[in-house]
Every structure is written in C-alpha cells, then in structure tokens.
Amino acid sequence: MEKPGGGGVLSAKEAFEKLEKVGEGTYGKVYRAREKATGKIVALKKTRLHEDEEGVPPTTLREVSILRMLSRDPHVVRLMDVKQGQNKEGKTVLYLVFEYMDTDLKKFIRSFRQTGQTVPPQTIKSLMYQLCKGVAFCHGHGILHRDLKPHNLLMDPKTMMLKIADLGLARAFTVPIKKYTHEILTLWYRAPEVLLGATHYSMAVDIWSVGCIFAELVTKQALFPGDSELQQLLHIFRLLGTPNEDVWPGVSKLMNWHEYPQWNPQSLSTAVPSLDELGLDLLSQMLKYEPSKRISAKKAMEHAYFDDLDKRHL
Amino acid sequence: METRAAAKRKANAAIVVVVEKQHPKRQRVVLGELPNLQNLIVSKIQNPRKEKLQCRKNPNANKPSPTNNTLSSPQLDGSYVSDIHEYLREMEMQKKRRPMVNYIEKFQKIVTPTMRGILVDWLVEVAEEYKLLSDTLHLSVSYIDRFLSVNPETDPPSVDEFCSITDNTYDKAEVVKMEADILKSLKFEMGNPTVSTFLRRYANVASDVQKTPNSQIEHLGSYIGELSLLDYDCLRFLPSIVAASVIFLAKFIIWPEVHPWTSSLCECSGYKPAELKECVLILHDLYLSRKAASFKAVREKYKHQKFKCVANLPTPPYVPSCYFEDQ
C-alpha cells in the first residue's frame, strides 16, 4: 500500500470494497472495507469536500497533518493512505485509510456492563499503561489530543492492544501555550479548567480525561456523567470538593467562575471502591484540580501501580 | 488562458486558507493583485563592515540555564520541553518538510527572488489586516516555498474551468480546488516547524537570563523573524538556526556592548556563535535595509506602538567578529 498522500493511480472506489458502515462523524461516514489488491481489512473515513463551500474541513486537515507528524507509534492509530474519490453527485470526497481495529473501549466496557462482569484488574492495568504511553508519545511530540474518551480509543480484543484515534480536535502546541477555544472535548471527560473557561491550557486536559477513563474502566460507569456544563462541574465538585484559592490558586479568576455550592472532598474510594491503593493514588494524581500539579503521562507510566505489569509487549 | 502569474496568486490564496484552518476562528482571505514588478529596484548591499565596538563578556554568559518551568506556562510539564524541542529539531531536518534551497534557480521560469519578496511583503499586510498569528504567516511562506519547490511548472487550468473571476479574485470553488492540489502536492505534511516555532523558546530563555521585559525581545524577535521571510537567501538555513540568529541579533541591538550569546542560549538551542555568523550577518543587513529595502510592510508594521516601535531601534552598522568566537 502506498504512503499517505501518495495520490496513487487507483481511486478509492477502485482500490477498496466497502463492507459495512461502522460509524458516522461530523464530516462523513466510516466504513469497514477490504483493499482489493491485498485483501487487507481497513477503515475508510470518508470526508465530504463541498467545493462550493469551505474545502477540506479543518478537523480533517488537522487530523491528517498531525497523524503524518506522529509517524508510527504502536499506540496511535495508523493512517495508511489518503485517497480522493467522487460521490454519486460527482462531488470530491476524501478518504482517509486507517488500519482497522475491531472495537473501541466504549463497546468493550459496555460488554462487561451487560454481562455483569468486572474488567480484570490486570487488563485495566495493561490498557491504562498503553493509554498513558500513547498520550506521552503525543505530548512528547507537541500534540494535544483534546478529545480523549472511550469511544476514541480503539482496541483489538484478541491482543488487548489499545490505540488512540480521532485526532480531529487535536492541536500541535508550542511553548508557551496559545489561547485555545474551550468548546472542545466531550462533556464527561472535560477538565475543570476548560469547563471554567480557561483559554490557556495544555497537556493536563488530556490527563484529566485519562483519569476519568481509568475510573470508568473499574466501575463500568462514567465518573462524572453531566448533561450540561454546570451539571458537569457540580458532579466534579461533589466528589472532589468545591475548589477554592487554597487548593487551586487562580480558580476564582477564571471566566466562568461563580459562587458554587460548597462541598467537602470525598475519598476517591467511595466512587471507585474496587480500585487498590496504588490505583487510587495514581487516579488522585490524574484528577488534581490545579493543572500544573496533575501528573504527566510520562510520570504516570513510572507509577508504582504499573510495577507488576509485564511491559515487554506493550 | 489564465496567466501563470494569476495561477501563482491563486495558489497563494489557497495556501492562506490551508494555514488558517489550523487556527480556528480566523477569517480567511483571498489574495488580490500583486504589485507591478516592472522598474523594481532592489538596493545593493552597501557599508562595508568596520569594527569599532569593544567586545565585552556577557555578565550572564555562564549563568545556569533557567529551569524548564520558565520556558513554559504553568500547565506545561517541564519534562516535555526538551522532548518537544528535540523532536522539532529532528522534524525540521526532514527533506519532505523543507523547501528545496535553490528552487528558484533550479525550477522556476517565472518566479524570481524579488517576486517572492513582494509576495511575502504583501502577505505581511494581509496578516496584519486580518490579525493573523505570526505562526500563520511563517507557515504560509513555508508552504509557498515548498509548493513552488515541487511544482516548477504547474499548467494552470483554462478559463472555462473557472466559475467566475472578478477583479482578479477567485471564487471559493477555485481556491478550494487549488487547496486540494496543494495538500496533495505537499502530501498533507503540514506540520513543519518554522522560525516562529523556535523563536518563542529562545526568546523566553533570553529574557529570563537577561531580566529584560519579555515583550521587547519578543517583538524585536518577531520583527527580525518576519524580515527573514523576505529574503530567499534565508531558505539555506534551518528554521532553528534562523531563530537562534534572530535572538542573537535582537540581543545585540538591545545591548550592543555585551556578548549576545549565553551558555543558556547555547544549551537550549544547541548552537555556538560561530554557527550563527552567516545568518546573523544576513539578518543584520535586512535590519539595516541593506537588503530588501523596497519591501516596506514588515518595517511599517513594527513601527507601531503595539509592537513597542521596535523597527525604530538603532543598531551599530556592523557586528563585532569577536562576538562570533566561542566564549
């Protein structure tokens, strides 16, 4: 298969046989498909290009250019090719060709919830280590994901391999950090500084999401399932206590700060009772209010929680 | 048939669109007519270098480099700063992310270094008009150079293929089509580091060690960085070398009697003064209008109060050669 953007002679229609639709995003559909030449199963992410409108959607442009920067990390989904094609109306369509993964973490957790089983602790540990490793790779390459959630973490249930996907909201950040829009990230996994309107934020927003995913793997339920920005904040405050200038200097100066109900912090073990002591310690470091105090993905990989994990094949 | 010059203008319009999409909430622009190229006089380099300044050691030359925390906002974990910098340095050297150094001589039958300068100068005005980030400007110029490196003779489409053209401004469909061509041509490798990528880090280190208001070094650095875009000669240098040379020159302009390069800057950039000499001297000529004097937009922009009028700062007519010797 040719390298991304190679613009080979075969169009997407000629090169692939669509097998089934597996999802739908803002800018188009995702198909499971077979590459005719090799029989290899791939994921085709179709992006509509409305030539009379705005051209290549910004999310697609960002996703492709960022995936081209991230080369080949085992924990970031691999973009194999970019192809152009035409739809029935003769409009230009862009196909991103990805390696195919059987499931995602959202479906994986749901399957355990439906059968009433708990995810084995060593499986949680392995998945969390891979997630931290993938996030550390992105951060070390100056990439901020900004939309980490179980649905965006692809999995191979046979090998338990996890890969970060959907970099449509990702940003390549520079030092120091620019002002970013705060209307990003699925609500349940959104960091408090983003909810409170901070425009300067960085890797810590991804780490908060990782913490929320960690808890969800253990309990099979979302840790903070808010249905509005306010409700989301209140969910967080009920468990971690209402923040103040002592625990989070500068919090009251954030754009969306108001006088909130005062809650005292609860022990994390009340929310994630089956997690062991080391796991709770790691989780607490991922869910620190003050972004600069939140553990980095790189440091998280060195946490004692992962000491008994066989990391050779991860 | 559309003229080749018009085809180039359309390409440049599309390039601005591509870059702007990476900076949300920015208005897009379509480029208009380039100024007439006839009778354009580019000033020759004058003023042979003379050396009068005494070379003084920088009192901060051997201060330990600042902690990683000073290089970033509080949210950026210090352990990543050097990782990112190392990766960017590695990435800037990749052939696929750089324009061919002498692409104009090798390929271009139409574009000349002067035309390129006019275009860049005009893009500076566009960036000012639409309040675009400096990164956007640097990326746009980088894409243009890369695009022209791999598209020596693009056959422009015929007029029949255009939906409508008025006042030399292309309609959206045309710009979108060109955008697709550019993306395909650059193989979606849009994430290349530019001078501005490295400038921020080096400016932070420089102002931290020197205890200067960060804004003065930053504005002067941005100014010299944008001047470097005007000069086709600067394509020879890696963006990190240009950025380091920009900081070297900015510090020389602010404190001409103190050695501009500190151990902190040497450590964080990985460059010794001798490695910067050639680039610094080119930038100095640009600063003194001994090169690219006819391009006014950058110079006018940085005369404004919002940039602390850094374009008006005086500088000696030469840089002492002892400043390029290792300390």
Automatic annotation (TrEMBL), chain A:
Q: Any idea which UniProt keywords this protein has?
A: ATP-binding, Kinase, Nucleotide-binding, Phosphoprotein, Serine/threonine-protein kinase, Transferase
Q: Where does ATP bind?
A: K45
MF terms (GO), sorted A to Z: ATP binding; cyclin binding; cyclin-dependent protein serine/threonine kinase activity; RNA polymerase II CTD heptapeptide repeat kinase activity
Q: Which residues form the Protein kinase domain?
A: 16-306
The chemistry this enzyme catalyses reads: L-threonyl-[protein] + ATP = O-phospho-L-threonyl-[protein] + ADP + H(+); L-seryl-[protein] + ATP = O-phospho-L-seryl-[protein] + ADP + H(+); [DNA-directed RNA polymerase] + ATP = phospho-[DNA-directed RNA polymerase] + ADP + H(+)
Q: Which Pfam families match?
A: Pkinase
Keyword check for Kinase: yes
Keyword Kinase listed: yes
Q: Which PROSITE patterns match?
A: PROTEIN_KINASE_ATP, PROTEIN_KINASE_DOM, PROTEIN_KINASE_ST
Q: A biological process (GO) annotation for this entry?
A: regulation of gene expression
Show the SMART domains listed in the entry. Answer: S_TKc (SM00220)
Q: Name one GO cellular component term.
A: cytoplasm
Name the protein family.
Answer: Belongs to the protein kinase superfamily. CMGC Ser/Thr protein kinase family. CDC2/CDKX subfamily.
Designated name of the protein: Protein kinase domain-containing protein
Origin species, per record, is Glycine max
Q: What is the lineage of its organism?
A: Eukaryota, Viridiplantae, Streptophyta, Embryophyta, Tracheophyta
From TrEMBL, chain B:
Q: Which CDD domains does this chain map to?
A: CYCLIN_AtCycA-like_rpt2
Give start and end of each Cyclin-like domain: 121-184, 197-285
**Compositional bias ranges of the Polar residues kind:** 57-76
**Protein name per Swiss-Prot or TrEMBL:** B-like cyclin
Q: Please list the residue ranges annotated as the Cyclin C-terminal domain.
A: 193-316
What GO molecular function terms would the record report? Answer: cyclin-dependent protein serine/threonine kinase regulator activity
Q: Give me the Gene Ontology terms describing cellular component.
A: cyclin-dependent protein kinase holoenzyme complex; cytoplasm; nucleus
Positions of transmembrane segments: none
What protein family is recorded?
A: Belongs to the cyclin family. Cyclin AB subfamily.
Alphabetically sorted, this entry's keywords are: Cell cycle, Cell division, Cyclin
**SMART domains attached to this UniProt entry:** CYCLIN, Cyclin_C
Which top-rank group of organisms is this from?
A: Eukaryota
- The UniProt annotation puts the region (Disordered) at 48-78
Q: Does this UniProt record's set of keywords contain Cell division? A: yes
Q: How does it assemble?
A: Interacts with the CDC2 protein kinase to form a serine/threonine kinase holoenzyme complex also known as maturation promoting factor (MPF). The cyclin subunit imparts substrate specificity to the complex.
The record's listing under InterPro entries reads: Cyclin, Cyclin-like_dom, Cyclin-like_sf, Cyclin_A/B-like, Cyclin_C-dom, Cyclin_N, Cyclins_cyclin-box
Which BP terms does GO give this entry?
cell division; G1/S transition of mitotic cell cycle
The family database entries (Pfam families) matched by this protein are listed as: Cyclin_C, Cyclin_N
Keyword hit for Lipoprotein: no
